[in-house]
Design goal:
The complex is a heterotrimer of chains A (796), B (155) and C (291). Chain A is an alpha+beta fold and 796 residues long. Chain A is globular. Chain A has 3 domains: 183 residues, Alpha-Beta Complex (Aldehyde Oxidoreductase, domain 3); 326 residues, Aldehyde Oxidoreductase, domain 4 (2-Layer Sandwich), CATH 3.30.365.10; 147 residues, Aldehyde Oxidoreductase, domain 4. In chain A, helix 11 packs across helix 12 and helix 14 packs across helix 15. In chain A, 27% of the residues lie in helices and 25% in strands. A 7-stranded mixed beta sheet of chain A has the order 3-7-1-14-11-12-13, sandwiched between helices. In chain A, strands 9, 10, 15, 16, 17 and 18 form a 6-stranded mixed beta sheet that branches. In chain A, strands 21-31-32-33 form a 4-stranded mixed beta sheet, sandwiched between helices. Chain B folds into 2 domains: 71 residues, Ubiquitin-like (UB roll) (Roll); 66 residues, DNA polymerase, domain 1 (Orthogonal Bundle), CATH 1.10.150.120. In chain B, helix 2 packs across helix 5. Chain C has 291 residues and is α+β, with helices and mostly antiparallel strands. Chain C folds into 3 domains: 47 residues, 2-Layer Sandwich (Uridine Diphospho-n-acetylenolpyruvylglucosamine Reductase, domain 2), CATH 3.30.43; 115 residues, Uridine Diphospho-n-acetylenolpyruvylglucosamine Reductase, domain 3 (2-Layer Sandwich), CATH 3.30.465.10; 105 residues, Enolase-like, domain 1. Chain C contains 12 helices and 14 strands. In chain C, the strands form 4 sheets. In chain C, strands 4-5-10-6-7 form a 5-stranded antiparallel beta sheet. The longest helix of chain C is centred in the C-terminal third of the chain and has 24 residues. Classes of the chains: A alpha+beta (796), B alpha+beta (155), C alpha+beta (291).
Chain lengths: 796, 155, 291
C-alpha cells in the first residue's frame, strides 16, 4: 500500500503548465542554435548529387536527347532519361488523383519546367554544370494556358498519352446540392447578384525547398529515404507500389522540415529520379531543388475560375449557385479524399442558413505545372470561403445593407447545431454571432465606420472588409474518406517507462506546427506526466504508427484525438493497477491529474510514476493483466471538425498611386479547446501573413506561350515584416462535441479567412468613390489603379 | 579568415559561395538558403559585424575578414539574449528562417540597442518568414533589447 | 540553389592594378564590388565572366567628402553609408530618401553606388538620383581620367560609358546652396524594384527656381531625364500648379513598357504623380535652405 504526500505532485504553473496552456516549445533549443536537421544538412558517406534538366517549353515534342557530353564530364556518374526509367517501369508514376504523371518526359513536355533528364554527379556544382551539357531538341507546340479556353474545339490536346482522351477535360463535372431547389429559391428572391470570381494561381513557397536523399543498399535490399514530406507513411506505400519494393524494406525519415503548407504532400519526379538513381548508381543520391524549380514545377495552389449567383429574401441570404472550372495543370495530381474530386469546395454554402444551393466543378488540363490543392487550403476550402464571402459582400452592396448585419441575419443559429448544410455537411458546433461580435468589439467597428466617413469626405480612401468562415478539417472518417484507398486514420502509441516518463509515437508530421510540444501537452493533460518527461516521436516510418500525415489541419483533430484516446487507455489500465496497489476496487478510485486516489480518503493514492514502476515490477498485478504500461490506438474520427472565425481587415489606399496598406487585421477564431494558445496564435499570425500575400502580391502568371513569369522570389513576392500589421487576435471557445479534447484544428483557418476580408476591404474603400464592386486578386497597385479607372481585369 | 572566432584556411574554387563554404566545407549547417535571387535572407551571416547574405558572397571575398554564423551566438553554453528572446516569445515555428533572423537581429541590436518596432521591422525586411507572420519576431527582438544582460544555459 | 559557372578570381590591391587586370583580360573580365547585381546574374547563368576582379580592398575608393565646393563620393561607398551620411542628408536628402527604399537593409550593407550606377538597370534608383542632382562621374582608364555627365554616362539598357579597361571611380555632386531634393518611389512590396520612381532637385534663389533636375526610374530603356519639365520650372517660382504641369510632362516624356509590375498607362500615371510629389518635397526642403 502506498501513501503519498500530495506536495510531491508536480506543480503546474502558468509558465510550465502540465497539460494545456502557453508552454514554451520543447523543439526550440536546436533551432535557435542552428542545429536543426533539414534535408540539405544531411550527409551520407559516398553521397552523390542529382540535378534535373527541365523543359524551357510549355508544350513541345521531344525530338532527341543527347546526353553524351554530360556523360563525358569527369564528375558525372550517370544521366537518366525517360528511356532508362522505362526499363525500370518508372517513367510514369501514379498521382494521388488516380492520374499518371511523367517522371521524366519521353514523348513530349507538357509544362514549362517539366523534368526531362536527371544528372548524378559527385558534387552539386558539377551536377549543375552538367545540365548545360545535355542537348535536347524540341519541336514546340501551341500551348493551352487559359483554363477557360482549355475545352475549346481547337485547343491542342495535352494528354495524348492517355488512351481515349480526346480533349483537355481532367475530370468530369462533380456536383453537390440541388439544382432544381436552387432555381426555385432564386426565382422567389428579392435580390440576386452574380459575379465571375477568380482565385488565381499562387504557391505555398515554404522557405525550404523540396528535396530527398535516397539510399538503396543492394546487398540488403533496404531503401533508406530522407525527405521532408508531410505524409511519410503514405509516401512509403506509394514507393513500394511504384518501385516494386517491399514496403517493410523502405524507411522514410523526415527530420526537420522548413515549412510545408501542402507543398510537401505530393510525390515529385525528383524523388523518384533520386530513388532510381540510387538503385542504378549504387550510392546515396541527394536531390534538392532550387527556388525556381520549386515555383515552376511543384504543387501550386488554387487556380479556380468561378462563377456564382447569390440571392436574398426578406433581408436574409437564401440561395447560392456556383460553377467552377478548375485548372489542374498538365497532370492531375491534386490531393483530396477519393470521393471528393473537388475537395471540400462544396462547403461554399458557408456559415449561412441557406434554403438551397448547387455547386458544379469541372477540372481541365493546361500546359502548366500540376497541382492545385496546397497552401493551407483545407482541400479547396480557401476557394470555397473566398467565393461565398465575396458573394456576401457583393450582395450587401447590392442590397445597400451593412455586410456584418447581413451576415448576422443569415447565420446558422446556435440551436441549429449539429447543422446539415444544403451540400451535405454536418457542422458540429458554433455560435457565430458571438464570434462576430467579439471581432467587432476588438476592431471598434462603429468607430471605424465613422472614421471611414470622415476620411471619405476628405478624399482619403479607407476600407473595412469582413469575412466569416466555417471550415471542415481533420479528414476524416473511414466510412467516406480515403486517399489512394488508404483510410485517413492516425495511430498513436504510448509507452510509459518504469520511471514514469513516457514516449508517444504519432503519425502526424510537423513542419513547424510544434508537435513535440502540443502532443506532449495532451499526454500531460490526460496523465499528469510533465510535458518535459514526454518524448514525442515522429517523422520516422520505422518508429511511428501508420497514419496519413499533416495537412488539412488534421493533426489536432485526428492525431490529437488518437493521443487523447491512447492516453486514456493507459490511464484506465493504470487505474486497475492502482486498485491492486491500494488494495481496493477500481470503482472506488478517483482521478486528479497525475494520480489515482481513494474516494473519501484522498491521502491514500498512487501517482502515475509509482503505477508505472509497479507495472514493470515483479509484484502482483490484477488478475489476467499483462505487464507494462502502454497502449496503441488507431483513431477513426467520427466526423470532420468545424472551426470558424470572424475576420475584419482595415486598409488604406493611396488615391494617386493605388498602393494598398493593411493597417489593421482583426482575427477572432473559434477552434474549440486550445491545447497551446501560444502555438495557436502563432499559426494564425503566419496564415494571416500568407493571406496578405495572396490578396496583395502573390501570383503565378504565364504568357501566351506558357512561360512562367514569376519564377523566382524577385517576381513571386512574399510579404515582409513591413507589409504585415500587428495582428489583433481574439478567441471564442465552442468545444467540438465529438472530439476527445473538444479541439478543432486551426492551421489553415487564417488562410481561409484573410484573403476575402482584405479584398472586401479594398472594394469597400473604392465602391462609393469609384464605383468598384468587384476586383480579382492580387490587388497590386497596378490592378487597383485599373479598377479605380473603371476597368478591372483578371490577372493573366 | 576567421569564422566564429577561429582562424580558418582552405583552398576553394573561386565560384564557391560563402553559404556553401560554411555549410559544406566547415560543416556549419545552421546557415540556410531558400532562394536563388538574394531575396529571402535565410543565409544571413555577419561579416565584420554587418549582416550579409552569404549566398551572394564568394567565400574568397571573405579572405581576411571575420565571419560569424548562428553557431557563434551561444558562448560557453550560454545563449545570447536574442536566442532567448526567440524562445520566450515563440518567434519560430519551422525554424528555417531563424538563423538568418537571429543574425540580422543581433547586428541590429549591436548598432541600435533600443529599436522601435518599426525599426525592427525595417531591419528584418530582408528576411522572409512564411510561418510566424513576424509579430512574435518583433516581440522577441524587443525582449532581447530589454534583457540585454540576460544569458542562460537553461534552454 | 543555382550556382555560377567556373571563373578565375583576383583580389585587386590597388586601383591601377585593377585597371591593369581589366585591360589584360578584356571583355571576359568583370569588376566585382558588392556583387549583389553581378552574382545573382551569374547564378542564373545570365552573366558568365571568365575573370573577376574583386575591388573590395580598394579603400581609396571609399569616401564621402567635400572638395572644391563639391561633395565627392567614392565608387565603393556602400548603400548603407549613403543612407547614414549626415552630410548627404543635409545637402541632398534625395539620397537618404532613395536609400530607404533601395533593396533591403542587408543588401544595402554590401551594394555600392558604383556597382548600382554601372549596372545601369533602368529601374535603378540611384541613377535617377544622380541625374536629378546633376552629378558628374569620374571614369578612370589607361588613358587617364575623364569626367562624364549623367546623360552621357547612361548609354543604353545595362550599358554605360565605362569602356573596356576602365572603371567608375567617383561621383561628384554640384554645390547644394539653395537646393532641396527628394525621391519618390512606388513598388509592389518593400525591397522590390520600382514600378516607377522620380527624383527631383530644385536650386532656389530669391524665391525663384534657378535650376531643376528631374529624372525617372523604371519608365524607359534607361533613366529618363525629363528635360522639358526642367525647362518649364527654371526661372519660375515654386508652385503646386507648376509641379502638376511638370508631372504631366514627365508622364508624356517617359516610355514605360508593360510587365509584371504594371501596364504602360499606370506607369505613365505614376511618373506624373511621383514627379509632382518629389517636386513638392524638394521645394519644401529648398525653402528650409533659403539663400
Amino acid at each position: 500500500m502506498a501513501t503519498v504526500e500530495t506536495e510531491n505532485l508536480p506543480s503546474p504553473s502558468a509558465e510550465r503548465p502540465i497539460g494545456f496552456g502557453r508552454l514554451k516549445r520543447k523543439e526550440d533549443p536546436r533551432f535557435i542554435r542552428g542545429q536543426g536537421s533539414y534535408l540539405d544538412d544531411i550527409r551520407l558517406p559516398g553521397m552523390l548529387h542529382g540535378a534535373l534538366l527541365r523543359s524551357p517549353f510549355a508544350h513541345a515534342r521531344i525530338v532527341s536527347i543527347d546526353t553524351s557530353r554530360a556523360l563525358a564530364h569527369p564528375n558525372v556518374a550517370a544521366v537518366v532519361t525517360a528511356k532508362d526509367l522505362e526499363t525500370l517501369g518508372l517513367a510514369w508514376m501514379p498521382t494521388i488523383s488516380y492520374d499518371t504523371q511523367a517522371v521524366l518526359a519521353g514523348d513530349k513536355v507538357r509544362f514549362q519546367g517539366q523534368e526531362v533528364a536527371f544528372v548524378i554527379a559527385t558534387d552539386e556544382y558539377s551536377a549543375q554544370d552538367a545540365l548545360s551539357l545535355i542537348d535536347v531538341e524540341y519541336d514546340p507546340l501551341p500551348a493551352v494556358v487559359n483554363a477557360r479556353k482549355a475545352l475549346d474545339a481547337d485547343a491542342p490536346l495535352i494528354r495524348d498519352d492517355k488512351t481515349g482522351q480526346r480533349d483537355n477535360l481532367a475530370s468530369p463535372t462533380w456536383e453537390a446540392g440541388d439544382e432544381e431547389a436552387a432555381d426555385r429559391v432564386f426565382a422567389e428572391a428579392d435580390t440576386v447578384v452574380s459575379r465571375d470570381i477568380l482565385y488565381p494561381r499562387c504557391h505555398p513557397a515554404p522557405l525550404e525547398t523540396c528535396g530527398i536523399i535516397a539510399d538503396f543498399n543492394p546487398e540488403t535490399g533496404q531503401l533508406d529515404i530522407y525527405n521532408g514530406n508531410q505524409a511519410p507513411h503514405a509516401h512509403r506505400t506509394v514507393y513500394a507500389h511504384v518501385a516494386g519494393l517491399a514496403e517493410h524494406m523502405i524507411r522514410i525519415r523526415c527530420n526537420d522540415i522548413g515549412g510545408g503548407f501542402g507543398n510537401k504532400v505530393p510525390v515529385y519526379p525528383g524523388y523518384v529520379c533520386a530513388i532510381a538513381g540510387s538503385i542504378v548508381a549504387g550510392a546515396p543520391v541527394k536531390w534538392i531543388e532550387n527556388r525556381t524549380e520549386n515555383l515552376v514545377s511543384t504543387g501550386f495552389a488554387r487556380d479556380y475560375v468561378m462563377h456564382a449567383d447569390m440571392c436574398a429574401k426578406d433581408g436574409r441570404i437564401t440561395g447560392l449557385r456556383v460553377d467552377v472550372i478548375a485548372d489542374h495543370g498538365a497532370f492531375d495530381s491534386t490531393a483530396q479524399p477519393t470521393k471528393f474530386p473537388a475537395g471540400f469546395f462544396h462547403i461554399c454554402c458557408g456559415s449561412y442558413d441557406l434554403q438551397a444551393s448547387h455547386v458544379k466543378v469541372k477540372a481541365v488540363y493546361t500546359n502548366k505545372a500540376p497541382g492545385g490543392v496546397a497552401y493551407r487550403c483545407s482541400f479547396r476550402i480557401t476557394e470555397a470561403v473566398y467565393l461565398v464571402e465575396r458573394m456576401v459582400g457583393a450582395l450587401a452592396l447590392e442590397m445597400g445593407v451593412d455586410p456584418i448585419e447581413l451576415r448576422m441575419q443569415s447565420f446558422i443559429k446556435p440551436e441549429q447545431f449539429p447543422y446539415e448544410t444544403t451540400t451535405g455537411w454536418t457542422y458540429d458546433s458554433g455560435n457565430y454571432a458571438e464570434t462576430m461580435r467579439v471581432a467587432m468589439d476588438i476592431a471598434g467597428y462603429e468607430d471605424l465606420r465613422r472614421e471611414q466617413a470622415e476620411k471619405r469626405a476628405r478624399g482619403e480612401l479607407m476600407g473595412i472588409g469582413v469575412a466569416f468562415f466555417t471550415e471542415g478539417v481533420g479528414a476524416g472518417p473511414r466510412k467516406h474518406m480515403d486517399i489512394l484507398g488508404l483510410a485517413m486514420n492516425d495511430g498513436a502509441d504510448l509507452r510509459v517507462h518504469p520511471s514514469g516518463k513516457a514516449v508517444v509515437s504519432i503519425s502526424a508530421q510537423t513542419q513547424g506546427q510544434g508537435h513535440e510540444t502540443t502532443f506532449a501537452q495532451i499526454v500531460a493533460e490526460e496523465l499528469g506526466i510533465p510535458p518535459e518527461d514526454v518524448e514525442v516521436r515522429h517523422g520516422d516510418t520505422d518508429r511511428s504508427p501508420y497514419g496519413l500525415g499533416t495537412y488539412g489541419s488534421r493533426s489536432t483533430p485526428v492525431s490529437g484525438g488518437a493521443v487523447a484516446v491512447v492516453s486514456r487507455k493507459v490511464r484506465d489500465k493504470a487505474r486497475l493497477i492502482a486498485a491492486t496497489m491500494l488494495e481496493t476496487r477500481p470503482e472506488d478510485l478517483a482521478w486528479e491529474k497525475g494520480r489515482w486516489y481513494v474516494k473519501g480518503d484522498p491521502e491514500k493514492g498512487a501517482m502515475i510514476e509509482e503505477i508505472a514502476a509497479r507495472a514493470y515490477s515483479g509484484e502482483s498485478l490484477p488478475e489476467g493483466m499483462e505487464g507494462g504500461l502502454d497502449a496503441q490506438v488507431i483513431y477513426d474520427p467520427p466526423n470532420l471538425t468545424y472551426p470558424y472565425g470572424a475576420y475584419i481587415a482595415v486598409v488604406d489606399i493611396d488615391p494617386d498611386t493605388a498602393q494598398v496598406t493593411v493597417r489593421r487585421f482583426i482575427a477572432v477564431d473559434d477552434c474549440g479547446v486550445r491545447i497551446n494558445p501560444m502555438i495557436v496564435d502563432g499559426q494564425i499570425h503566419g496564415g494571416l501573413a500568407e493571406g496578405i500575400g495572396i490578396a496583395l502580391m502573390e501570383l503565378l502568371s504565364f504568357d501566351e506561350e506558357g512561360n512562367c513569369l514569376n519564377s523566382s522570389f524577385m517576381d513571386y513576392l512574399i510579404p515582409t515584416a513591413l507589409e504585415c500589421p500587428d495582428f489583433e487576435l481574439g478567441e471564442t471557445v465552442t468545444p467540438c462535441p465529438h472530439h476527445p479534447l473538444g479541439a478543432k484544428g486551426v492551421g489553415e483557418s487564417p488562410n481561409v479567412g484573410s484573403p476575402p476580408a482584405i479584398v472586401d476591404a479594398v472594394i469597400d474603400a473604392l465602391h462609393e468613390t469609384h464605383g468598384v464592386d468587384h476586383l480579382d486578386m492580387p490587388c497590386t497597385p497596378a490592378r487597383v489603379w485599373a479598377a479605380m479607372q473603371g476597368r478591372p481585369e483578371p490577372p493573366q | 579568415m576567421t569564422v566564429n572566432g577561429e582562424h580558418v584556411s582552405h583552398d576553394v574554387e573561386p565560384r564557391m559561395l560563402l553559404v556553401h563554404f560554411l555549410r559544406e566545407t566547415l560543416d556549419l549547417t545552421g546557415t540556410h538558403w531558400g532562394c536563388d535571387t538574394s531575396n529571402c535572407g535565410a543565409c544571413t551571416v555577419l561579416i565584420d559585424g554587418d549582416a550579409v547574405k552569404s549566398c551572394t558572397t564568394l567565400a574568397v571575398m571573405c579572405d581576411g575578414h571575420e565571419v560569424r554564423t548562428v553557431e557563434s551566438l551561444e558562448v560557453d553554453g550560454r545563449l545570447d539574449p536574442i536566442q532567448m528572446g526567440f524562445h520566450e516569445r515563440h518567434a519560430l515555428q519551422c525554424g528555417f528562417c531563424t538563423p538568418g533572423m537571429l543574425m540580422t537581429a543581433r547586428a541590429l541590436l549591436d548598432e541600435n540597442p533600443d529599436p522601435t518596432d518599426h525599426e525592427i521591422r525595417v531591419a528584418i525586411s530582408g528576411n522572409i518568414c512564411r510561418c510566424t507572420g513576424y509579430k512574435n519576431i518583433v516581440s522577441a527582438v524587443r525582449w532581447a533589447a530589454d534583457h540585454e544582460a540576460a544569458t542562460t544555459t537553461e534552454v | 540553389m543555382q550556382v555560377p559557372a567556373a571563373f578565375e578570381y583576383e583580389r585587386a590591391k590597388t586601383l591601377e592594378g585593377a585597371l591593369q587586370s581589366l585591360r589584360e583580360h578584356g571583355p571576359a573580365a568583370r569588376v566585382i564590388a558588392g556583387g549583389h547585381s553581378l552574382l545573382p546574374m551569374m547564378k542564373l547563368r545570365l552573366a558568365n565572366p571568365d575573370y573577376l576582379v574583386d575591388i573590395n580592398d580598394l579603400a581609396e575608393l571609399s569616401y564621402i567628402r567635400e572638395e572644391q565646393g563639391e561633395i565627392r563620393i567614392g565608387a565603393m561607398v556602400r548603400h548603407v553609408e549613403l543612407l547614414r551620411s549626415d552630410l548627404l542628408a543635409e545637402r541632398f536628402p534625395v539620397f537618404r530618401d532613395a536609400e530607404q527604399v533601395i533593396a533591403d537593409p542587408t543588401v544595402r550593407n554590401r551594394g555600392t553606388i558604383g556597382g548600382s550606377l554601372c549596372q545601369a538597370d533602368a529601374a535603378e534608383d540611384l541613377s535617377a538620383v544622380c541625374t536629378a542632382v546633376k552629378a558628374r562621374v569620374v571614369v578612370r582608364g589607361g588613358a587617364g581620367e575623364r569626367v562624364v555627365a549623367m546623360d552621357d554616362f547612361h548609354v543604353g539598357p545595362y550599358m554605360t560609358a565605362v569602356g573596356a579597361g576602365e572603371m567608375l571611380t567617383e561621383i561628384r555632386l554640384p554645390p547644394a546652396a539653395g537646393a532641396g531634393s527628394a525621391h519618390e518611389k512606388v513598388e509592389r512590396r518593400a525591397g522590390d524594384w520600382a514600378i516607377a520612381a522620380a527624383s527631383a532637385a530644385l536650386w532656389v534663389r530669391d524665391g525663384v527656381i534657378a535650376d531643376a533636375g528631374i529624372a525617372l526610374s523604371a519608365v524607359g530603356l534607361t533613366t529618363v531625364h525629363v528635360r522639358r519639365a526642367e525647362e518649364l520650372l527654371t526661372g519660375k517660382a515654386p508652385a503646386d500648379e507648376l509641379f502638376a504641369e511638370a508631372g504631366k510632362l514627365a508622364a508624356e516624356d517617359c516610355s514605360p513598357t508593360a510587365d509584371g509590375r504594371g501596364p504602360v498607362d499606370y506607369k505613365r500615371h505614376l511618373a506624373g504623380v511621383l514627379t509632382q510629389r518629389a517636386l513638392r518635397r524638394a521645394a519644401a526642403r529648398a525653402s528650409e535652405q533659403e539663400v
